[in-house]
Amino acid sequence: MTMLxxxxxxxxxxxxxxxKQYTSSRMRLQEKRGTIFTVWFSLWDIWYSSxxxxxxxxxxxxxxxxSLFEQLETIADNSPTGVKIILPEAMDPTFLxxxxxxxxxPGGSDHRGDDQRNAIQLVRQWNTAxxxxxxxxxxxxxxxxxDRSQRAGPERLALE
Length: 160
Fold this sequence. Notes:
Strand order of the largest sheet: 1-2
Radius of gyration: 18 Å
Helix content: 40-55%
Low-confidence stretches: 139-143, 155-160
Distance between the termini: 34 Å
Largest sheet: 2 strands, parallel
Oligomer: single chain
């Protein structure tokens, strides 16, 4: 079984490939206009962090968001073409069937619902941190612009 590389490694591999393609005559003009990324993190971060105490969970979310934006800035700064990045908001993992089976169901580990309450709070915290970090991101000169009206919540993605 092949393990999926971490985000930093994937970004590095993509940039190497993209630079090689960009200098190649095989790349069409339309492809040189830019790339759209949809980067959806949060599900597993929230799933696992919900078991932590409040301070550790908040720190884990902060570190995840910081790491994500570090790589997004690397993409924006180094991509040979224009980049548009779509950042969907976190969805509530407690709605997933796996949550019920593993956490709150008859054989689950969260009989009092503490992890569930934590997860719901972490979704709010993730989305607030994502919004704040994206709003603080560099402007068009730095390679990207944040358009709050185009935020993509999971319910919007499912409908479009």
